[in-house]
């Protein structure tokens, strides 16, 4: 009999891949926006830019290549490697919002997270379809109909949201997952 392994659904953008910093840099370079960290706390870029600049960002995201060269969130690689030893880890990204991002995202995952099987990569829209024990995500909307335990990964846009458990970094994720696994 195979021992029970906790099944984790792990988001990509703002959890594994630092899309926020890349978007912030794009807005600075392309549109001249300069924001302090305090100005960005609890807000989304679309709330801070003109409709035209937001549309330009959306057009760039829909091309897909933006997702190919994002920086890895600090600690993610070591944490995912450790989690793969004890859990079933699936990368679950709402890529259908930007369908052209699928190939760049997949290539990025293969480069930075070789421990993740290609069979454990899920490109989806509505994440409520996922059958996992724990979902690690930066967006509360994905927890609304999810049947497992959501773990909110802190990002500037969700800094003012109230949710527990919340992980501020990958060490927090490891601690939370260990606690959830121990409680089963």
Task: Give the key terms.
alpha/beta; single chain; 184 residues; six-stranded parallel beta sheet
Distance separating the two termini? 17 Å
The proportion of residues forming helix, as a percent range, comes to: 25-40%
Nearest-angstrom radius of gyration? Answer: 17 Å
Structural class: alpha/beta
Question: What summary fits the major beta sheet?
Answer: 6 strands, parallel
Q: Which ranges are low-confidence, i.e. pLDDT below 50, for 5 or more consecutive residues?
A: none
Number of strands: 6
Would you list the SSEs in sequence order as H and E?
EHHHHEHEEEEH
Query: What oligomeric state do the depicted chains represent?
Result: single chain
User: If helices are DSSP runs of H or I spanning 4 or more residues, what is the number of helices?
Assistant: 6
Q: Indicate the proportion of strand residues.
A: 5-15%
Task: Please list the strands of the largest sheet in the order they lie side by side.
Answer: 3-2-1-4-5-6
Mean pLDDT across the residues is 95
Shape: globular
Which helices and strands appear, and what pairs or packs with what?
Layout: E1 7-10, H1 19-31, H2 37-40, H3 51-63, H4 76-86, E2 88-93, H5 102-112, E3 121-123, E4 134-137, E5 149-153, E6 166-167, H6 170-183
Parallel strand pairs: 1-2, 1-4, 2-3, 4-5, 5-6
């Amino acid at each position: 009999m195979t021992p029970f392994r906790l099944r984790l659904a792990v988001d990509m953008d703002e959890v594994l891949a630092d899309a926020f910093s890349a978007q912030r840099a794009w807005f600075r370079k392309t549109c001249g926006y300069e924001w302090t960290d305090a100005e960005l706390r609890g807000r989304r870029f679309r709330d801070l830019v003109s409709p035209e600049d937001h549309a330009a960002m959306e057009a760039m995201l829909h091309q897909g290549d933006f997702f190919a060269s994002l920086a890895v969130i600090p600690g993610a690689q070591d944490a995912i490697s450790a989690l793969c030893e004890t859990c079933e880890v699936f990368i679950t990204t709402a890529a259908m919002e930007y369908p052209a991002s699928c190939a760049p995202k997949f290539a990025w995952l293969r480069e930075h997270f070789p421990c993740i099987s290609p069979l454990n990569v899920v490109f989806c829209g509505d994440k409520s379809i996922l059958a996992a024990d724990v979902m690690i995500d930066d967006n509360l909307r994905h927890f609304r109909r999810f049947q497992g335990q959501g773990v909110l990964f802190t990002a500037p846009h969700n800094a003012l949201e109230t949710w527990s458990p919340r992980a501020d970094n990958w060490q927090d994720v490891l601690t939370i997952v260990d606690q959830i696994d121990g409680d089963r």
